[in-house]
């Protein structure tokens, strides 16, 4: 696909050269590149001291007294945005300068690398091609671009990056973890000598500071911290499951003093760095046996997050329940980022690949940061967990990384690992795979390919009570083979991107064979649905959801499969709900998708809010998983489904060179959103009343949008910025002319 994409980009560039005289945006002054990224990071000059953001001081950072960003690889990538409200603003060439000194860069001297004028529309994932970079050195860079009329921009502002002392062939840089001081939103005197502070939302906190007063040295305050409270308003001492609660005795000294609560280490796989210290999650703080006055300013917590851009996204609609669900999921990305990678919650603090997939997609939809998802995915390649599907899902997260960033380095570096993650070594005579309980797991060479030393098992769903009766044994399973098929399809895409022509042919042929065998083994012709395995007639929701979402259902059978899926409701966990929603919106049933996300039943995201959590849960509620925790990123599926499917904005070509706008509002009257992309933000506003659908969209520079709208009966009139346009009608949808940068008012009636 690299050859294909490059040639497509060249054609893409040449097409704009040809129409430059007609496009108003191309005849104007070219926009200066902004939002410069090195190794996908926007703020390579970010520095902190003990987690708190501080002004940039490179000598201090190099001495190790500041936490800072260090570029870890020998060949970093570069990227930028082209911001413009003008129509048709496209890049056709660029020039990057990298200098060893700031003064040299000011003189336009790229003594480390001068790319020269490169004919290309590419504005992300551009690999460094200069002299070998030295370790522990500062480098300065900038870029200028040209449009289709060969009008060049001014150079961008300079950006700077610091290399690590020992540069590697491939490694993903990250920001240091960040502390933010937060005060309660309210403090209440709930009963005599008992105060409760509510911080509004739960967060993982490194320190808690209390400024308290006492008339003697004999007073002792009992401090309670927790994620849950009681109906009386106190901190819940017995919240159940893995919902966090801690108790500390605090002897007071005479007078007014500030005390720090030192949190106890609670285990977990991923350890906190020393500059942060141990953290615990809590929303509420209760001061028991305190006779003084507890004001808001006298209680401060140091919440720990991976740096996060609150303004990168927004969503609001005519449905208040959906808005609350969105807020829950958006905040969940921030709250669960406290280790600098996706984990499964506070109970284990273990990175699971299933959490990575949902966390990755949701993070892409709420923030314009790509390194935490990439690091999480890459870590799991060499630190796999026990479920079969989690091994397989690494191929999916690898493809998403490339699709959203346009940066090939990760899939190139881990290509052999990704091939193994398909689990082709477990293939049987008919081309399908069986993993659980097979003797092949006893082969150390087979297991070493996937970095495993222990056995792996099919999970289907978790907890086991969420499997809708799925028959889990050592048979050939539909869910496992649906994943297998999806991996083969994606491996053909990855091979194409890397230019491995023979592998493209191999994986396409293999995928076609698997699809044929899949239909023969699992399709129930009589009942028109998919069975769980080759040894049962039972047909779970899961067997049909994964078959549909991964493209295994024949067109003529999709209606019957969707009918069966609808009949099952939410008969799955919060994890499989991700794929259920993808399948439903893929089948263009926006009304049903909306009804699942704005449900107020027990098995809903609103129930998480109702039970008291401000972060997505591990399960639908406490009764569905007795040991669940209240800080699990895999419960945040609507955070990406709302943006990708309901709002309908998602990439079509890697690096957002082309993207889709395909709204499925269901019964919503209106919705508006800001969707972050590596090209810049896409903003949309939708409204629908009667037979009229209206939208306003702002498209960033150097990309193009495919706009697909639901047709209104037989006759449809579409106007763009007041001018009627022709739209292609196909299968009940209207395909509008491709739109490029600018602001557009679109009306369909």
Overview in brief:
It catalyses: Hydrolysis of terminal non-reducing alpha-L-rhamnose residues in alpha-L-rhamnosides. With about 750 residues, the chain is an alpha+beta fold.
Task: Explain how this protein is built.
This is alpha-L-rhamnosidase. It is an enzyme of class 3 (hydrolase). This protein is an alpha+beta fold and 749 residues long. Among the domains are: 2-168, Immunoglobulin-like (Sandwich); 178-305, Sandwich (Jelly Rolls), CATH 2.60.120; 656-748, Maltose phosphorylase, domain 3, CATH 2.60.420.10. Helix content is 27%, strand content 26%. The chain contains 18 helices and 33 strands. The strands form six sheets. Strands 21, 24, 25, 26, 27, 28, 29, 30, 31, 32 and 33 form an eleven-stranded mixed sheet that branches. Strands 13, 14, 15, 16, 17, 18, 19 and 20 form an eight-stranded antiparallel sheet that branches. A hairpin with a 2-residue loop joins strand 31 and strand 32. Helix 5 packs parallel to helix 7 and helix 11 (478-498) packs parallel to helix 13 (541-549). The longest helix is centred in the last third of the chain and has 22 residues, at 501-522. The protein is globular. Residues 1-27 have low confidence and may be disordered.
Feature tags:
27% helix, alpha+beta, Immunoglobulin-like, Jelly Rolls, 11-stranded mixed beta sheet, 18 helices, Bac_rhamnosid6H, Bac_rhamnosid_C, alpha-L-rhamnosidase, disordered N terminus
């Amino acid at each position: 696909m690299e050859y294909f994409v490059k040639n497509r980009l060249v054609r893409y560039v040449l097409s704009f050269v040809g129409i430059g005289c007609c496009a108003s945006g191309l005849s104007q002054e070219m926009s200066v590149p902004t939002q410069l990224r090195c190794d996908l990071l926007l703020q390579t000059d970010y520095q902190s001291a003990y987690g708190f953001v501080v002004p940039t001081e490179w000598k201090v950072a190099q001495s190790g007294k500041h936490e800072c960003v260090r570029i870890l690889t020998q060949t970093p990538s570069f990227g930028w945005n082209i911001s413009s409200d003008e129509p048709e603003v496209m890049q056709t060439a660029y020039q990057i300068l990298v200098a060893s000194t700031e003064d040299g860069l000011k003189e336009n001297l790229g003594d480390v690398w001068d790319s020269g004028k490169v004919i290309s529309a590419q504005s992300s994932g551009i690999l460094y091609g200069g002299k070998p970079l030295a370790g522990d050195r500062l480098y300065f860079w900038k870029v200028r671009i040209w449009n289709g009329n060969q009008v060049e921009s001014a150079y961008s502002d300079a950006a700077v990056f610091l290399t690590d002392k020992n540069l590697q062939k491939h490694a993903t840089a990250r920001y240091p973890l960040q502390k933010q001081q937060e005060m309660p939103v309210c403090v209440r005197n709930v009963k005599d000598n008992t105060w409760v502070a509510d911080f509004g939302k739960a967060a993982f906190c490194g320190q808690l500071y209390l400024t308290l007063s006492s008339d003697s040295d004999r007073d002792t305050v009992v401090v309670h911290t927790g994620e849950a409270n009681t109906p009386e308003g106190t901190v819940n001492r017995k919240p159940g499951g893995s919902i966090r609660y801690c108790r500390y005795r605090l002897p007071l000294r005479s007078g007014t003093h500030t005390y720090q609560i030192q949190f106890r280490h609670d285990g977990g796989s991923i350890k906190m760095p020393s500059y942060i210290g141990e953290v615990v999650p809590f929303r509420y703080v209760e001061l028991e046996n305190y006779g003084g006055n507890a004001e808001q300013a006298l209680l401060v917590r140091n919440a720990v997050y991976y740096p996060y851009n609150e303004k990168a996204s927004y969503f609001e609609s005519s449905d208040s329940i959906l808005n609350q669900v969105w807020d829950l999921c958006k905040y969940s990305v921030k709250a669960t980022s406290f280790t600098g990678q996706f984990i499964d919650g506070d109970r284990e603090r273990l990175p699971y690949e299933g959490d990575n997939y949902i966390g990755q997609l949701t993070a892409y939809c709420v923030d314009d940061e790509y390194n935490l998802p990439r690091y999480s995915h890459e870590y799991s390649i060499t630190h796999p967990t026990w479920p079969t599907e989690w091994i397989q899902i690494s191929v999916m997260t690898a493809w998403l990384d490339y699709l959203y960033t346009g940066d090939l380095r990760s899939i190139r570096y881990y290509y052999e690992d990704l091939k193994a993650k398909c689990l082709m070594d477990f293939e049987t005579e008919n081309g399908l795979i069986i993993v659980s309980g097979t003797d092949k797991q006893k082969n150390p060479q087979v297991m070493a390919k996937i970095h495993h030393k222990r056995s792996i098992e099919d999970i289907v769903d978790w907890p086991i009570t969420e499997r809708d009766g799925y028959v889990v044994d050592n048979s050939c399973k539909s869910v496992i083979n649906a994943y297998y098929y999806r991996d083969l399809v994606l491996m053909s895409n990855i091979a194409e991107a890397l230019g491995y022509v023979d592998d493209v042919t191999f994986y396409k042929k293999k995928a076609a064979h698997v699809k044929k065998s899949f239909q023969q083994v699992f399709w129930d012709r009589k009942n028109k649905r998919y069975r769980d395995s080759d040894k049962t007639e039972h047909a779970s929701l899961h067997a049909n959801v994964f078959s549909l979402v991964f493209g295994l259902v024949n067109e003529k059978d999709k209606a019957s499969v969707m009918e069966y899926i609808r009949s099952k409701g939410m008969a799955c966990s919060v994890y499989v709900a991700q794929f259920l929603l993808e399948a439903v919106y893929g089948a263009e049933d926006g009304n049903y998708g909306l009804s699942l996300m704005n449900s107020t039943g027990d098995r809903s995201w609103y129930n998480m809010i109702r039970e008291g959590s401000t972060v997505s849960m591990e399960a639908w509620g406490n009764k569905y998983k007795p040991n669940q925790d209240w800080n699990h990123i895999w419960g945040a599926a609507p955070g990406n489904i709302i943006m990708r499917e309901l709002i309908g904005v998602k990439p079509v070509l890697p690096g957002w060179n082309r993207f889709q706008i395909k709204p499925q509002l269901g019964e919503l009257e209106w919705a508006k959103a800001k969707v972050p992309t590596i090209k810049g933000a896409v903003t949309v506003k939708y409204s629908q009343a009667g037979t009229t659908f209206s939208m306003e969209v702002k498209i960033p520079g150097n990309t193009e949008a495919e706009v697909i709208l639901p047709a209104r009966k037989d006759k449809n009139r579409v106007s763009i910025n007041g001018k009627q346009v022709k739209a292609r009608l196909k299968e009940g949808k209207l395909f509008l002319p491709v739109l490029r940068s600018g602001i557009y008012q679109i009306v369909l009636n």
